[in-house]
Amino acid sequence: MSTKTQNMTRRYALGALGMTLAAVPFSPLLACGKGHVKRGATGWATGGTAAMTGANTYPNPFASGLGEACTLTCEQILGPCYGSTLVRKDISEGHAGLPVRLALRVLDESCKPLPGATVDIWHAGPSGVYSGGDQHPFCNPDDPKARAAQWFRGVQSTDAEGRVDFDTCFPGWYGGRTVHIHFTVKAAGSETVTSQLYFEDSLNDGILNTQALYNTRGARNTRNSSDVIVAQEKLGEFILQTQQMPDGALMAWKTLIVRSSTGTPLCEANSQYLKELVKAGLNPSDASTFPPDMLQPKS
Length: 299
Fold this sequence. Notes:
Layout: H1 3-6, H2 10-16, E1 99-107, E2 118-122, H3 144-147, E3 153-157, E4 163-169, E5 180-187, E6 190-198, H4 201-208, E7 241-244, E8 250-257, H5 272-279
Parallel strand pairs: 1-8
Antiparallel strand pairs: 1-4, 2-3, 2-5, 5-6, 7-8
């Protein structure tokens, strides 16, 4: 195995294994949320989804139309931290953190809404740890509370417009990966695409460096530009559009274009480095195939 492969930490595999878009302009007449909102630095709300006091006034981020090319969303690997989940909108299980409304719209290859598709998402909590007891222990090492929980996991079915909303908290970072959210979409019970979503690095820096629960963990070691799981030339296709809401929550959204038939070949957005590891025998969804050094905590 090459030195580069040997130096790959368990966290390089964990997250993936586990064109910058301008934000859609919102109306200046947005109503502010009622009641007291606890704010962190730079006006962000704190305290988790309970702080989303203006949620019923959040705008429709898809109102202006597609706004991007109608091309298939490319595949990224599922990873070993996928696990059992619950049908629900609020996936935070009461966790504190910067509240996020994640809006996803699923369209077919002709750019028509795909109702009744299931969208399953999962991501690390503010501390950079995944929940669930049905993955490899390195997803939440030495953390019995995390293994007994299902926070930051959820699944919903798309409505007539192809849309689902999840209320969550901003994901935390962990060594070897940039901040990301996993998702998989199924139509009629068949997987149409599995991939990952990312935030602009400027937003990551602003939140991770200033906000409670995030700013006490030290500097992250991986940015979007140095992530070795996603193909850098395709990274821009997975950047979420974002906007701070009047109540201090973050609205993040993305349109996903999925294949109408599993017979349609998927494009791939995995890095060449990861592809080489897979060719060498690593199964990104099976931790038992990982080289031993990848399962050790990062020093």
